[in-house]
Hints:
Chain A is mostly helical. Chain A is built from 15 helices and two strands. Chain B has a two-stranded antiparallel ribbon. In chain B, strand 1 (140-143) and strand 2 form a beta hairpin. In chain B, 52% of the residues are buried. Residues 300-304 of chain B have low confidence and may be disordered. The chains are: A mainly alpha, B mainly alpha. At the A-B interface, helix 5, helix 12 and helix 14 of A face helix 5, helix 10, helix 12 and helix 13 of B.
Amino acid sequence: MSRLAPDRWAAVAMFAVAALTPLVVRDAFLLDSVILILLWGALSAAWNVAGGYAGQVSLGHAAFFGIGAYAAALMSARYAQSPWLGLAVGVALSVVAGALIGYLSNRLKGPYFALSTIAFAEVLKIVASRWRGFTSGSEGVPVPYRPGFWTLGLGHVAWLYLILVVAVGCYALQVYLERSRVGYQLAGVREDEDAAEALGIATRRRKVQAIVVSAAMTSACGSLWAQYVGFVDPSHVFSIDLSVRFALNSIIGGIGTALGPFLGSLLITSLETSGVEASFTGIYLIIYGVVLILIVRFAPDGLTGIAGRFWAWRARAHA
Amino acid sequence: MDPAARLGPAQIDVVAQLAVSTLLLGGIYALIAVGLTLIFGIMRVVNFAHGEFLMLGMYLAFFAFTLRGVDPYLVLIIAIPIFYLVGLFVYVLVMRGVIHASHNVQIFTTVGLSTALQNIALVMWTGDFRIIRPWESSVVLRAAGTAFNLAQVVAFAVAVALTVALMAFMKWTHTGRVMRATAQDRDAATLMGIDTDRVYRLTFAIGIACVGAAGVLVSPLYAAYPQAGLQFVTLAYVVVVLGGLGDMAGAMLGSLIVAAVEVGGSYIFGAAWKEVFYFLLFIGVLVFRPAGLLGQRGAETLGA
């Protein structure tokens, strides 16, 4: 039977709606919302590769985001080169950083691993805010706008399709992880590392690989984000709030599922852009916090988990 | 702020001054860290919202001082019971449900709590930096070629007294023994008739009371703002991991080491880079001796 599972259909529908939006509306605000939903979804999917599929729950992914953002911003602002080159440099640096963090924190579990990832992101934040000669310190780096694809000075519609391609790529990678040998090995590492090791899985190498891939994806999205938003400052791009946000989308949508990060992003990002924020600074962050507490407590498998149970119940009722 | 800068180098014995600064700073860090390590040791939960209770303590002192003119050290007397109750309330409302859950659930519960509390503070009291200047902060004491301010000394003295009292409580009272027994083996403690839920409730409340008190104590020295807890709590993680998660004597030692790194690092390389040193120290300890300087090897790989 070649029928697609309901969650795959939901993803296809979501990406299709995103792709059709510019054909129907040209409202900059709406297009901006769609772009941000896809971009945050892609970033959370990147986090999900390490945090969800491999069980390496990081609270320091802002480190890779920041590396990518700074690489692209500095490359275009300081060296007047293409931000694509910056993106490539950022990915390369993040691969090295991810390998280092993954290797050094390999033995650590649970809260110890989370703490060490926080520490790495904090070190980078301090370096970026203090190394004034190179990064302009805490003033941040404004990214110059130069129209054209090579310089990533795009209109809303072009941005939407570019980010859509990235998002679909991130989704596809997650689907691959759900169906491939590597993905099953990662699940083994996540569920019981000793048992996985006993079955002959190179657990340490798999964990580092998951972090490296996740870091590279996060960094690339960070570069695109810097070009899209046009401004990079250390206290935001390296903040723990950002790291939490990557995790939050995945957890709300469903950790360790391909659709989860995008579903979480749809909910959280549209809450943020809907204007609740405009009336009270910080009010949506209070909602974030409370929702996070409630979700992990009452529905640790997130929205996709709830939907899955509902689907199973309906299938039984119809049978 | 820095007395050395105000007085000029001639009147200050550098080594003695650095040593005194280390000690004063270390005492305050110890009080912040001891609550964190207590909660971890007994409940096996890293409280990522610990810094937010510190921040609330700072705001309590700020508002008591500006609205009622109450000195921060008098506020302390009511702050400890208030934060004890806050701890009880948060435990019952948030922590009780996840005490037996997986690490990830616990991590994100306290992370969510941290985000919520930070932003409640932001919505209620804006993001402005609030600092109070009670008379103690402008009194400079001088002894043996060192200079320091009275607020620092009082904060240090009270912090050390509270920390020592807590350690004595844990060591010599029946409740303290019960708490330690629960830390050693949850199941065995339950079998011995210990009400572990009561132990966790008490632990969390005491931990929060400590950090709330620390918040009040540092209010004359540091500005209160919604993210004020973050700078201290990252440091408290370093202290606690250095000392071995759950080890109170280790937390005291860790506080002194972190304070020494901070004071020495700022003196040699400038204040801007001081945090880099303790984070590098942190990463070094996590990598080479994750169970802490005094802790038992191997605890970190159990994830417990």
